[in-house]
Amino acid sequence: MDEQWVRDISAVDYTSRVTVRNPKSIEACVKLKESTNARVCVGRAGTRYRTETLLRFLADHAAANDSVWSDVDESLVDRLGFFKIKTLVRDKQEYITRPDLGRKFSKDTIEEVKARCIVNPDIQIIAADGLSAFAIDANLEDTYSIISDRVRAKGYKMGTPIFVKYGRVATMDAISEALNAKVTVLLVGERPGLVTNESMSAYMAYDSSTVKPESQRTVISNIYNDGTPTVEAGAQIAYLIELMMKEKKSGIDLKL
Amino acid sequence: MRAGDFLILKTKLFGKVYSFKNIKDVLAKANEEKAGDALAGIIAGSSAERVAAKVVLSEITLEELRNHPVVPYEEDEVTRIIEDSINEEAFNKIKSLTVGEFREFLLSSDEPSIKKIRDGLTSEMVAAVTKLMSNMDLVYAAQKIKNPATCNTTIGKQGTFSARLQPNNAKDDIEGIMASVMEGVSYGVGDAVIGLNPVGDNINMVTLVLNKFKEFEEKWSIPTQNCVLAHVSTQMESLKRGAPMDLMFQSIAGSEKSNRAFGIDVAVLDEAYALMQEKKSCIGNNFMYFETGQGSELSSEGHHGADQVTMEARCYGLAKRYHPFLVNTVVGFIGPEYLYNGKQTIRAGLEDHFMGKLTGLPMGVDCCHTNHMASDQNDSEILEMLLAEADCTYIMGLPVADDVMLMNQTTSFHDVATIREITNKRPIKEFEESMESLGIMENGKLTEKAGDPSIFMV
Q: Are residues B127 and B178 in the same domain?
């Protein structure tokens, strides 16, 4: 007997689906849906959501929530040759509530980084889980491959790629200082929304430092399939690396 | 000012002695548990210490609280605004009350009696009594107080429950924004304001959207207010160039330092207020709109070691200076390091609403949660229902509560309609009449025709 299942609601493109009962103009509803990804033209049951609307909302929230509380697939970072370290954070709950600890490493960790990673690299790539493990799972491999291919082709000295568990953006400063990197690139999972739980950002800085303000960083955000796809993002990052190496600056100092 | 000699900052509870450093320490430790107070390192070390702090706080007089603002008068203009605006006659009536007695006064008095003493309060007093209130106390006391305000229409009257229509769009696409506006109005939402958080902070966008909202309101004869929630300096430029602006918006904080992080100070707000007096497009005398939220001072390192409830109360003390039409806390917006879960968010929503009402503001609440909090839409719905019982002035309305621009969840068009139906409340009268003419509402309820945005596409 064939296996049977209830239809996969996550496969439905809700952004084009009109569920208003007997609208005055279905064509107008379709047009409204085309103009936005907001959940309009959904209709109602009494004053409440239709069942389909409620279930899809719950599914999207669950997906966003799970991406925060999940861990990055370590076999992926192993396969890509990333050196794995951890911040002072002990678990996810602490990570969520103590952003200060997610920016710091122990002395031992820093010593280990210095001992086992390439020092004085031109380009240091770092990946961190941030607020979405799924963003790293979905986008790291392609983005990293494109960056590393292009950067190597230019003859820059690539550092040992590093993966930071329970890592926030500012971890890039401590690593850059420990290894004396020229350009540091941090690929990190963004806070998920209901539209996507796979969005990744790239933070980049020349001579990234714990004493410089946040404005030292150049950012590319919304790296995901329906946002800035990995191929495009990787190329943009590689271009910016080259520019930063040439100009020896980043962030607001770098005129794009 | 009186020295702290007579202050007793020590008590004993079940055989154990608890002592506190100063009033600021008592205020912090008397707070219900919040992640932000833990992050700031000022939270009570145990449940018993929390109660001990409440006990000590209950015996402190309102005069002592006035004499010990959490940020010194000399150092901070928000403290100065609050202190200098005190009505001495009102203050004299209550100065000798302890916080414990003040709580009982609020719970046992009627609205006129509360309003008689209101201008004698500092934000520290407002925050202090909040710390001795249970959740139901907060609902009960807030429900007594109505603070109507008038822009084009009058918000906050008995029996009304209003909503901001928040048509945010990730690309600032005007067609997309208007799709959300049409959807929202078709549910009877938007009587508080039709107000957009733009992605880009620029003058042209502000002007374009204000005009678009005005045009829509005029075409369909919908009496309400328009607003684009850009930075105040951007809105001022837009206003100078003739944009039709009913409400001017700004996020504010409870200290001078944190306001600077928002790129504002009292002088800028005064300037914005004066410019609106001259150029506003609305009729009434309440034309400012402020947003606040527990934790914003800590996040910009401007909390001065004080707890997030007290810093939040100070936002309301500052807001009062500008007789705003709308003030809402965006509870749960900054994330779990300030409000960890649904319980903390619900508590904060009730606290903020009560504090705003007691201060004299037409208080609304954005019941919000991010996806990295241990909270979900059920928690937001609980908070909305409690706020409706507390006669909250307004909440937010978004398509299925999903803010596709800010990437968090708030409350929905459906929620607004539902709350009105289950609590038998109405939109602002003129707005409701307009909904009746459009065939969307009848006797305060949605009609068959409601919930269909295509009625605006002819």
A: no
